[in-house]
Amino acid sequence: MSAQQVLFDAPGPKAKRNIFIGNIVGALLIVGLLAWLIITLAERGQLEPAKWTPFLEGRTWEFFLLPGLLDTLRAAGVAIVTSVVLGLLLGIGRLSHFLPLRWLAGVIVEFLRAVPVLLMMIFLWLAIGAAGIMRPQDIPFIAVVTALTLYNGSVIAELVRSGVEGLPKGQREAGMAIGMTRGQSLRSIEVPQALTAMLPALVSQFVVILKDSALGYIITYTELLQTARRLGVGEGNLLQALLIAAVIFIIINFALSSLANRLSKLLSFRTTGKTKNDNVSNVVVADPTNA
Amino acid sequence: MDGFLSLFEQYDVAGAFWINIQLTFWAAIWSLLLGTLLALFRISPIASLQWFGASYVNIFRNTPLTIIIAFGVLALFGQLFVSLSEDFDLNFFRLAVLGLSLYHAAFVCEAIRSGVNTVPLGQAEAARAIGLSFLPAARLVILPQAFRGAIAPLGNVLIALTKNSTVAAAGSVAESAGLMKTMIEFRSDMVIPIFFTFAMGFVIIVIPIGLLTTWASKKLAVAR
Amino acid sequence: MRTTRYGALAMAAAAALTLSACGGGGETEGGGEGGGAEAGGETIRVGIKFDQPGLGFDEGGSYSGFDVDVAKYVAGELGYTEEQIEFVESPSANRENMLANEQVDMIFATYSITDTRKETVDFAGPYFIAGQDLLVAADSDISGPDDLNGRNLCSVTGSTSAQRVKDEFAEDVNLIEQPGYAECVSLMGSGQIDAVTTDDIILAGLAAQESNQGQFKVVGNPFSEERYGVGLTKGSELCSDINAAIEKMIEEGAWEEALANNLEGVDYEPNAELNPPTPDDCA
Fold first, then answer.
1. Percentage of residues in chain A having pLDDT higher than 90
2. By residue range, what is the domain housing residue B34?
3. Residue range of the domain that includes A150
4. If DSSP codes are grouped into helix, strand and coil, which group holds residue A204?
5. CB contacts, 8 Å: C190 with chain B
6. How many of the other CB atoms lie within 10 Å of CB of A36?
7. CA nearest to B74 within chain C
8. Does position C38 have pLDDT exceeding 50, yes or no?
9. Is A102 domain-assigned?
10. In this structure, are residues B157 and B30 in contact, taking their beta carbons and an 8 Å threshold?
11. Helix-helix angle A99-114:A139-165, to 10 degrees
């Protein structure tokens, strides 16, 4: 039911007036809330120029926010690549005809989806540190990327599986008809189409990866949230620094989400799978995992 | 092995998990209420409400939860002096519930909207044909079907919420992720058994939720 | 067709990984690659805190603080120039591991000498004796942990110092745990909490921040003894040289100067009975 307008009539003069009044009341409520916020924050001295001017200085961006953002993007970027690879492997494993392999992939996926990313991150950080196999300054990065890969790889595996299962049966039958084996048809006909179909959902999952990389600050990875905190410690404007970090996250994630929406419209004619089918995309389109 | 068991006498692991379950329970209720309201806003005839619903979802869905929880303590408690309880510890618990609810409401809203999308157009047309206006049509015809269509995605939100409750550690709530860190730092030689204990705890909580919602979504699906 | 598609995917993956690997390598150029074979060679790797203002703090490209200054002096006495020092972040949870795995040569990171730790690492020093204390608002009437009943006390997640106050001094204190001391100080700035607790010199470092000047004071009634030592790998031969360097630093007055420089503008005197300390004998 996408045409929501059927839910109500085009408003008449009376309804229009009511809506107008409703709009004004709503606007007043929001303005009132904002006014309370601003007045209280001003009382506490949180709006003083000294708390905000650091964000106009080049040094703030050069040494804190930009390196932090770069580290966030670096961790997210690598994790996106590795989790797609892991997701393909696990997803194909779950579709395998060989029972033990299918079973093993299933257990791994269910386990990884159930464990909070934060728990995995803390564990990897402390465990790799204890094992002493890596330069200490690399450990937080590796722990962040590995934890993100394990969780998101398992989600992408589910995407691959539901994407392939959402294809019309005729695709595989056609593959068999020209003499392909089951595996050949899976690799060269079904998965590529499923990938196209799930691309929008995949891009949405990148938003999850980007947000989750912020958990890295708990294990001392110098991502955006961490550098914003350090900036806030030095300048005494922790709240403001966190707010700026939040705004940066929202802008990037909003851009990614919009890209996902546009892709789903663009790609719908490129595949026999369904780019907008809710059964496919529900696995992740709204994946709120952020721990 | 003895050392491992004595760790559990020393630290209250079950108690920490109980805190996660309580956080999840209250945040689930509040985010369901708020999320339904937002979904109503987004399908309502009033443009400003649609705008509000969409802005809310876009802002909260795209902000890392850690920042939301941190704002709960640093801004709401620290600067705006919001107090949700006379009791000091309970106040932080409720602030964490508030942060979790605000974040997950955005996803509940989207899940319900996807549920609304499963309701055929004819249902809305029929509701209007018998003279129902927006709210009665939504309440009596659309939402009951939408909820049943939204059980699977709502289940996903609940699973994520369970796991996300670990972030409350950043908001001065003593829950399992914080306890795991403390335990590993105390006994770094037992890092693997400690991790798997906590991980299995979550598997035990999360997998039944998944099975239950999958079963319910099939059982309650509207036959079409 | 199949090969090209998967080939392209693999190449894209490889390219992304390579790019990020380059990005990661830059910051540690010229550093020791893994193993500790070259300790005493070209560079010396020193573990410090990066987030502790006044002690070990990452200023964006350079490092400041008392721990950093002592480390630089000691490294200088050991024959390293400032360019040869490679500072590495060593968070509390990783210190023993980093030493045991020879990932750093020495650690100056508010590292208290304790018997438990001595089982796995060696210590030189102490170079400073801190004590658990309270940071309060400049006009506060709190004069010690006994005054905290019914008040709000902040410390960092996983630290035992706040629990000690509750157990030993003030049963009815309200505890709040935050990810870092910066959060605690921010909350105290608006009066929502009454005190922050940890080692006195760490508190003084927080209060000495430019943006906090004049707002807070260290109570000056320490109720524990934390002997900050230089963490070394078990069996390290650096101990006696480091001790000699610390003694020389104290004698020359550089020690006092470093303390004053880093804690300028704060109402804080280190425990005079115990400071400056005499280093213990090396085992």
1. 35
2. 15-173+192-219
3. 63-269
4. helix
5. 78-79, 81
6. 11
7. C187
8. no
9. yes
10. no
11. 120
Please report whether residue B93 resides in a domain: yes
CA distance A79 to A151: 10
B96 domain residue, yes or no: yes
C31: which DSSP letter? -
Q: What Å distances lie between residue C42 and B111, B112, B121, C79, C240, CA to CA? A: 59, 63, 75, 10, 21
Directed axis angle between helix B176-186 and helix A117-131, to 10°? 10
Cβ of A13: how many Cβ atoms within 10 Å? 7
User: Residues A137, A71: contact at Cβ < 8 Å?
Assistant: no
Average of pLDDT values for A134-150? 89
Please tell me the distance from the alpha carbon of residue C149 to that of residue C138, in angstroms, as a whole number: 19
Interface contact C177-B181, CB threshold 8 A: no
Residues A63/A65/A71/A74 CA torsion (nearest 10 deg): -120
Which residue among C16, C182, C212 sits closest to A81, beta carbon to beta carbon? C16
Sketch out chain C's domains with CATH numbers.
2-130+225-262 (3.40.190.10), 132-218 (3.40.190.10)
Question: Which residue from B154, B174, B157 is spatially nearest to B166, judged by alpha carbons?
Answer: B174
Distance CA(A132)–CA(A53), nearest Å, equals 43
Give the tens place of pLDDT for each residue, A106-122.
Answer: 999 999 999 999 999 98
pLDDT of C4 strictly over 50: no
Calpha distance B115→B120 (Å, rounded): 11
| Residue C33, pLDDT score | 38
Q: Tell me, what's the pLDDT at A48?
A: 84
pLDDT at res. A275: 58
CA distance C17 to chain A (A): 6
**Burial of B218 (C-beta count, 10 Å sphere; 0-12/13-18/19+):** exposed
* CATH code, domain with A115: 1.10.3720.10
Stretch C178-202: mean pLDDT: 89
- B48 touches C: beta carbon within 8 Å: no
Partner residue facing C179 (CB), from B79, B170, B184: B170
Structure tokens at A285: 């389109």
CA distances (Å), C55 to each of B208, C70, C258, C263, in order?
49, 10, 10, 9
Residue B164 pLDDT = 93
pTM (two decimals)? 0.84
Q: How many folded domains does chain A comprise?
A: 1
Nearest to C101 among A132, A137, A220 (CB): A132
| Sole residue written with tokens 């708020």 | B34
For residue range A120-138, list pLDDT tens digits in order.
998 998 888 777 788 777 8
The Cα-based distances of B217 to A2, A144, B20, B124, B209 in angstroms read 21, 34, 25, 22, 12
Residue C18 — pLDDT band, cuts 50, 70, 90?
very low
Question: What sign does the CA torsion over C11, C15, C21, C22 have?
Answer: positive
Residue of higher predicted confidence among C46 and B149:
C46
Q: What would the two tokens of residue B84 be? A: 């949700």
Touching check for A238 and chain B: CB below 8 Å?
yes
Q: Look at chain B and report how many structural domains it folds into.
A: 1
**Could you give the 3-state DSSP secondary structure of residue A134?**
coil
Residue type, A36: W
Instruction: Note whether B133 and A8 are within 8 A (CB).
Output: yes
Whether C34 contacts chain A with CB within 8 A: yes
- For residue C205, pLDDT beyond 80: yes
Pairing of strands C152-156, C132-137: unpaired
In a domain, B84, yes or no: yes
> Is the predicted pLDDT of residue A248 greater than 90, yes or no?
yes
A231/A53 Cα distance (integer angstroms):
13
φ and ψ at residue C237, rounded to 5 degrees: -95, 5
The mean-pLDDT minimum among A5-14, A68-77, A220-229, C164-173 falls in A5-14
B182/C158 Cβ within 8 A: yes
The tokens of A202 are what? 């995949």
